[in-house]
Please model this.
Amino acid sequence: MEIKQKIIIFILFFCGCTSNPFWEDKPTKKLNISGIVIAEERVSDVPVYVWIEDLGVSGHADATGYFSIDIPSLEAENGNFSGSVRVFYYIHNYRASYSDLYITDGRLTSAQTDFDEGGRLLDSIKLEKLVSLDLTIDSNWNRSAGDTLSFSLNLNIKEHPVSILAHVNQPGGQQGYEPSGVLFSLNNNEEVYYDENNIDFLQRYDFDSGLSITWTFYIAPDDITPFVIDDYISLDQQLVTTGSYQVRPFAFIQQDQVPNELIQSLGILDTENISVDFLIMPLDMIEKSIVIQ
Model:
């Protein structure tokens, strides 16, 4: 009888508990931040990139500037995350901005400065354009006829000085340099070519505010090659095929306040050399294409 009473008490003890008395799973909660970020003077539909430093979380604003980003649980066996992180808002030719987000023990801190307790941005963010970029190029290039392609990139520096890294070419027997480093992409970047024969070295340009500069590019028919060469296929079979190519000159705008990790999170590992990765850089510029024959 005494043994039955102990068993009954033991069962009632478990049934009366709302959680396991011997171990208890830590509660998990997914955090979310949201808000509005507006890129002034935007001429394309490029979305604003939103990146949370130290947490490895990112997303994009929609066409209206609204973003909503879920942050996975910040709870861990060795302790929950606590500290302040910066939420960056980025388009390559805009001045980057950020908001502070405070987290305590894996939860949003009640004492926020830029967000409310629910993770909503208190004030909308306005991004200021650093450089306007405008490409002027013909609609066709007849390489088969031996024509040299000539086009220009116009840069209008806004209210802040900027530093830009770009490739240059030093023509044989001439003094001075010509701009170089141009990507030609076909079929959503499945085929990418560039003017490899024109690239001599990297040049840094320091421009004051209010300047207007025009870079003129010259590309001969035999200057462009595949960005990735397949050693198992003859080079003749990898020459440029006829089609409509998106054109993007390489011009990296330096911003000291932008962490290298932000650029790397985009998938861009090298900022000092032209690469296929630069095609995914969020850049506000009207895309121009050319039919190459």
